[in-house]
Amino acid sequence: MSFSDEVIRKMKKQYTFIDLFAGCGGLSEGFVQAGFKPIAHIEKEKDACFSLRTRSCYHYLHDNNKLDVYYKYLRSEITRDELYNSVPRSVTNLVINATISDETVSNLFLQIKEMAMGRHIDMIVGGPPCQAYSLLGRHRKEMENDPRTLLYLQYGKFLKEFTPKGFVFENVPGLLSAKKGEHFKNLQSYFDELGYKIYYKMLDASDYGVLQVRHRIIIVGWLKDNDLGYPNLEKEKSCATVNDLLEDLPFLKAGEISNVSPYRSKINDYLRWSGIRSDSEDFVTQNISRPVNSNDAAIYRIAINAWNCEHIRIKYTDLPEKNQTQKNKNSFLDRFKVVDGHGYAHTIVAHLAKDGHYYIHPSLDCCRSITVREAARLQSFPDNFYFEGSRSAMFKQIGNAVPVLMSKKIAESIRQLL
Description:
With 418 residues, the chain is α/β, with parallel strands linked by helices. The chain is built from 16 helices and nine strands.
């Protein structure tokens, strides 16, 4: 075999991975788009598992030129059961709805080995729940006893069992400083004992085409006898803005819902480049907005005007006294925040599931918080990615996800190293 033939063979190789603490699949979506093959996704939240299964159906139907079935589901012409029955059972069985714990890992190992059918697991990816390491979580007295701070131990059990070539571990910046850095030092020592050389960097999603400032720790580990170092992630900032990202979506007022609707305008360069919108698709789903009461609507108008006209973030105590209906006037004073239409959005978080005050749409004519689809776009999910569950469940899944564009960039760089 010639050198060029060998290169081609390696490029065509489909590397496998399993996704732990998968959420709705932002991290795995990037790996799939980069050519990796998922063996299993493990996630404890039922709604997120349905989102993963639905997305698995999309990829199977796409690869087999049967996307018309998927589009029928998006248009509510067939049920979810009918969608799932249109693909081999092995497609939806990729998703395991389970909590990863001492009590479940042995059975999970058996399930994954059965699903792998003798194939080696090349990579493990995942981001254990990170609330305990967040800025808020670190101030809780019970943090030291929070089991989420030790989920890296469960992650390590999968490394020990399957000995993948490498792994990707995503978490919030607070991981580095939690308990004065003790947790991160323990994590490093643990992975070292398991035979992995680890590297880590603080990455900002906006450096990789995502229209959102989002800092995350990305740890990459390799078996010590095959150490490939940290992937070379070339930055690719976009000159597009949030207004460019949202311009073609349905124009909605507060409380309005447009589950299936045509695009409002033609596709632009950013939407095409990012893969968020496809030239071949003529409708978009899940434009679901929250209702807003009269007092919050008045606050939204004040906040939007202050930001768009003067570039000022209002504090709660700056509002007219009649609008200050909440007792807490000492903390969380930035609880009403407008998304920057002329730049990048601030970090999307799972709190979006509880209220939208921190993510007010930049248009005064809308006077509402962002919709499910708008939030998904800010996380660079493709428009054909369908989120299952209630509105709150959708927002939670989106807020917890790894932006797809950043994940794809990481996956492509890792594939080059492999």
